[in-house]
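My main concern about presentation is that the manuscript never shows what a single data entry looks like. For the editor and my fellow referees, an illustration may be useful. For illustration, here is how one protein appears when written out as sequence plus structure tokens:

***
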Amino acid sequence: MPRQARVIVPGFPHHIVQRGHNRQPVFVERRDFEYYLANLQEWKQAYELEVFSYCLMTNHVHLVVQANDNLSAIPQLMKRLAGRQTRFVNALEKRSGSLWEGRYKISPIDTDAYLLACCRYVELNPVKAGMVDKPESYEWSSYSARVGSSYCHWLDEPDTFRGLAVSHQMRVEAYRKFVEQADGSPSDELIRAAINSNKLTGGGKFVDEIEKRIGIRVETRKPGRPITEK
């Protein structure tokens, strides 16, 4: 079966997942997590990209990154991150070979309807995996910085987050409630299916818009419910 082509759309956020080779652990010690995040900070600034959300699990990485007009920026970011982490781990462990799967997965996101839902999906990974009870308890995701429990000066704030309320504290509380009511969220299945197949995270209108914009046929899926779900 042919691989689904990866689509990058300038001006839209993208959900990215990269897994360890044969799903083996990528991050074992604290230094591994810290090194990856330091490189994420460096290269997202070098390529002038915005990072809205991240989560480093033991054997895979989730990122939500805003694409700019340079279509090579995200591929170069992922190449730099993967290459540096591989060399770092191989040098420490005196090993050789690939640390990652050959291809990362990527899904352009309908900004208004699904961006916050994707950030929530990313940041709830450790909870769903049974690693922590609350997302703020997991050190290696963006959630604690988003809600003010920790500090990450390079984490970017999307317009949809700023649109939640008039003050920052009110926005934080609104986002907390949004994340807490995620149990069984119907958007999760659409997000999961989209990233697993390199498809678009959005409904039919979004698919039509992107097809017209990039001139590539994208298979449509049934629309899921947007972030206004109750």
In short: Residues 21 and 121 are 23 Å apart (CA to CA). Residues 13-202 form a domain with the Alpha-Beta Plaits fold (CATH 3.30.70.1290). Confidence is low (pLDDT under 50) at residues 220-230. The radius of gyration is 17 Å.
